Amino acid sequence: IEPIDITGILSQRGGEAVYPLPRIKSIIVHPKLNLATILFA
């Protein structure tokens, strides 16, 4: 998972306002775990 893809996902789910920067960094560090969290939240 690349940062560009993550940005696209965040935008579809409401943008950075919904996901604070620390969580975005966490998604980049642990893409699989956090991607699952976003998709199934």
Tags for this model:
3 helices, mainly alpha, 41 residues
How would you characterize this protein structure?
- By secondary structure, the chain is mostly helical.
- The chain has one domain (3-40).
- 71% of the residues lie in helices and 0% in strands.
- The chain is globular.
- The termini are far apart.
- The model has no long low-confidence stretch (mean pLDDT 60).
Question: What would you say about this model in short?
Answer:
This protein is mainly alpha-helical and about 40 residues long. The protein contains three helices and no strands.
Q: Count of helices?
A: 3
Rg computed from alpha carbons, rounded to a whole number of angstroms: 9 Å
- Main beta sheet: none
What percent of residues adopt helix (DSSP H or I)?
A: over 70%
What global shape is seen?
globular
Could you name the ranges where pLDDT drops below 50 across 5 or more consecutive residues?
none
| Structural class by helix and strand composition | mainly alpha
- Count the beta strands: 0
- Which percent band covers the strand fraction? under 5%
Return the average pLDDT rounded to an integer. 60
Task: Give the helix/strand layout.
Layout lengths: L2 H10 L8 H9 L1 H10 L1
